[in-house]
Write the structure tokens for this entry.
Amino acid sequence: MPRYEVSHRTIYNYSAPVIQSNHLLHLEPRAVTAQNVLRHSLIVEPAPAWRETRVDYFGNPSTLISLEDEHQELLVHSRSEVEVVEAAPPELMSTSKWEAVVASFATLPPDIVDFVCPSRFAAGSQPLYDFARVSFEPGLPVLEGARRLMERIFKEFRFDNTTTDVSTPVHTVLEQKSGVCQDFAHLQIAALRSLGLPSRYVSGYILTHPPEGQEKLEGSDASHAWVQVWSPETGWVDFDPTNNLINSTEHITTGFGRDFGDVSPISGVLLGGGHHSVGVAVDVRGIKSGG
Amino acid sequence: MNQELLVAPDYADPEPTVSDGLDTDAPQNDFATGAGPDMKLSAASRSQPPAAAAEAFYKTQPNVFDEMVSPDGRLRPGWGACAEWFQKTPMSFQVGLAQKTERLVYENFSSSIRGDRSWRLDLMPIVYSADEWAVIERAAVQRANLYNAILADLYGPQESFAQGLIPPALILSDESFLRPLQGVMPERGHLTFLALDFARDPLGNWRVIDTHTETPAGHGFALANRTVLGEVGGSLFRQAQVLRIGNFYQSLVDDLLSRAGGDDPLIAMLAPPPDDSAFFGHSFMARYMRQKRVRGTDLRVVGNRVYLKTIAGLKKIDLLIRAIEGHKADPLELSPDGFDGPVGLVEACRQDPNLMVNALGTAVVENRGLSGYLSGLSQKFLNEDLHIPDTPRLWLGDAVAREQVLSELDRHIIHDAQEGTGSPGEAVQGRSSVGMSPEDRAALEAEVRFGATRLVAEQPVGFATAPAWTTEGLRPEAYALRVYVSNIDGEFQVMPGGLALSVDEGATVALSSAESRSRDVWVVRRETDVPSLSLKRIASQHATIQRHSKGLESRAADNLYWLGRYCERADGTLRIIRQTLERSAADLLAPLSSQRPIKVLRAILEREEPFDPASKTVDAEAVSLWSSLTDLCTSEERMQSLPATMASIRNIAVQCREMLSEDSWRILSGFSAENVTCKLPAPAVDNDALPGAAISNALDIIEASDELLDRLAAFSGMSHENMTRHNGWLFLDLGRRVERALQLSTLLLSLFETSEGPDLDSDDMFFALQAADSFLTFRSRYRFAPEMHLVLDLLVIDERNPRGLAYQLAQISDHIGRLPKSSDDAVRAPDQRLALDLLTKVRLADVEEMAAVNSEGQREELRAVLAELIRELPHLSELISRQYFSLADEQPQRLNLNSAR
């Protein structure tokens, strides 16, 4: 079973003193069927006045911190060790016809319905429906359709971290055919929801490989996002449109929600602070198992 | 003809009318009232038998239920007194009352905030008999209990999903379902305030057309309507045996105080900023209930508790009345762009679920999609049938309903299932595909397909009517009724009254007619009911004590300080304008008179710029006078101009209205430089002709200035006489003193820095004494023409002259000394030190030296003393604001989310 050590370091620098800041963190990996969490630690400097770890509405571990003394720099350092469980690849072709899943909407339980309903960053529309229907031929098994859609996004869209930011709507991504993993995830989710299919956003990390013959650079990894699609036969299955991968063992899950807004790794609100700059360093390292 | 008509059993007058003022259903000092006619039944008309059937003065629509008259032409119970009044009273008198109503509504509702959407109130109330009202009451209480049960379930075990009573998608696609609040359960349920919109169909069957469970929006409008109509129709109100609503609010306030706990709880209404359309209603309600109204930026969450920022530091809040939308309450865990509440509020509510009423997340049961599911939910949670159902509605998230609606789109009106604030008359009109272009229709169809879970479809079913007043008599109009329910002492109670609005027949189901008139709602009491007291009579025993023991909010202190400054600025500026014109009018034929008063005008106008009076050159007097005056009176950009000052006064008055008496409010909110500016001569007047041509303008402006000065003096007198000397007054007066010291220093420096010889100096000494309102004092002391050292003594050094500099500085020093300081300060705070330093310098100044002129005609010492004041007073103002108001300025900002790759 592959084991990974993840280090996620974020440093904020403010041009003016921050009088108080509150943050909501989704940095701790979530224990799921495909993943055991062996260790997690969180360092915050300066030390917060209080800190509360809770499980959010979607079952993800989350932490609230509040810094109530004046500060001009904030360090949040999350370190985790997880073990990813290898599983047989899902049999996409033997899942229900996608139309049948759509038709079952009224009978689905709330924890599935939640991910069909429109959300802030991923709501259905006619152009997204048209986009999705190219992959979803009539009568196609639902996860096969999801795979074809993922493959199309992977092939037709260009990875470019200069064309979008966190507030770029899915429609812009669809039109300009470029973006980052978060945009591709939102695009696939919104397209699936336009059909009436359940799909959710997964936040986490992925193991990256340096170009052939080169050393991996320290802090060169990043947080990552992909999607899950549901079928009655398989439950939720991972699809990564950025890398064209299904249920890989190189993905580490921190949590899932309707979209990025539910599981953003760090969000915060400041009183004061002026302008800020942020430095992020993520390292995902495979370690020998059984140790 | 008709025995029931006009001789309704409840019509006897219990007591002769003694005093109208005392019987108004609201505290007198909180509301503008006006003398004038009142709705009274004449003794003659009371003793006479009914003369005519209802048809004679009121024609109902055929086959439509009417609230006042039944199909057989008889008056319905309770309407006797009202119908008689409108039938018997001469129309000219009714028109007079309608105008008075309009005026009172204008004085109390209109504000720049609401813009053109003016509120209108019908002279005719809608009357319900006790029996009819009991039907509504029973249904409203049932609804309140039902919604509370649904909320407890949705934020708890969600059994209604599992049991198929609510489709999960209906709730889960509603953005007002606040997931972070899952599991947060207030002891007394989620709801304390709710309102229900009832309407009858044309057959007379009641139905509920909308539900408002988010904020107490609309209470303020109902209260204000009642106050206006109580004032206009006081006697009729009593004769008709109408139930008062004061008790309802008194019990509510008492209950809120006891819920907050402790000996002296701190309660505040958390409301949106003044630019929000709901501001008026919330503000009125907060004032009526005598509770603080605060904004998100007035609060701070520290260690999971909510605090109010005051000039004495943070004070813990015991109970918050929520008047902001739930999803905007905490930018950290709820909508990232909602800054109406303090960051961390959600976690504070998790730690103390009883902290806020209504609890966060209550808007979700407003969802119109619930209509079709309520009867099943009522069976499950209450074991009862629904007393009054919702209007027929289809939730489009249901596939069958959606296909049906799409197949016959023209027959339906499409509405958002969830809709904002619930301010009366602001519901969004539904959309009908009838008459739509093919493109619009396709867009609507697409919206129905892809946003179905957030939409409902309705079919117009029509409304019953009630009489509305017109100058041609009463006329039936479709209407709907808003009823207010509150949890008091653990049980839901219905306010005996409410708010009714005319509705557009057919177009919509919601209360959306902003242009139509609102109505007061009168519930006639049973013989057995004990007449209730108005809120004013049983004035809250908590209110007065509370105001004193609680710290003053930093924002309020900030507002009062600047109110003081702007009022004094207007006062000083007007005095100088007046004095300049008076002299100019008197000196028309004396071209050699001093031109320094014009320099004063310019110095005032340009005060925000680097002050250097010596560099100002003065042109030919007349042109410069009028151009300086025109600049001062019309400039939109200059901070010191009269219009800018007046606008600032009005803005601040709106923000701190609850701290102002009704009289003060009327004075301040009506301030405008218009009266002065409209008297300015046209700029095209030929220069040479100016002094002569402008003489009448000058006199007009002097008169207009006098009037404004009177009103400023009235406000100043009122605040001086009526405000207790606690911190609020200290800040108001501090603002005044700082501004007056600045104005006076500017005046003296501009006039006397350079000597222009004994004659002109003497002229300007008169000018200074008069502008500083100290001429009489001077005359009473000295029986000869002013001399510089005597004038300076009176205007600078004399601490007993309330118009003098030393007096202002002594007061400033005194006030600052009395303001709360952090206790561990052994040394004086910087503001205190600076104030003392300035005062001491003036005290030690030598008038002879200040009056002395050097060889270049300059008064060096005078310049040294005054220039320092002009430089340091703004600095002092800055220190005060840093010490006491800086907490008010913290704008929260959201950190950029760090993007994943």
